[in-house]
Amino acid sequence: MTKKEKIEQIKLSFENLAQLFKILGDQNRQHLIYTLFSLPCKSKGGVRVGEITEKTHLSQPAISHHLKLLKQVGIVGMRKEGTKNFYYLETNTQQWHDLSKLSQDIISLIQEINLEGTD
Question: Can you give the pLDDT at residue 63?
């Protein structure tokens, strides 16, 4: 693949991941992700909004709003049990893999560009 093709591929990856970057850019959503690391995971049934509220500085409506956005991009999953919703971090999402690939592609291209300067 040529350098120009690699740059185009990186540009396309950025465009495809734009919504994920937007969602991850918010500090409150970042804080929710950190908080969910320490709460019951998917295999343990997940956690209710009230339990998350106890661990954060956010109100219950704010948490619900942020969870909805995180769910839309596949970072958070949800299961229903009657009228109760249980949330958990979703690991089965292509976006985490795409983000990792984008990082690797950027590193690879930067290394290639830096090596060009040493010839």
Answer: 95
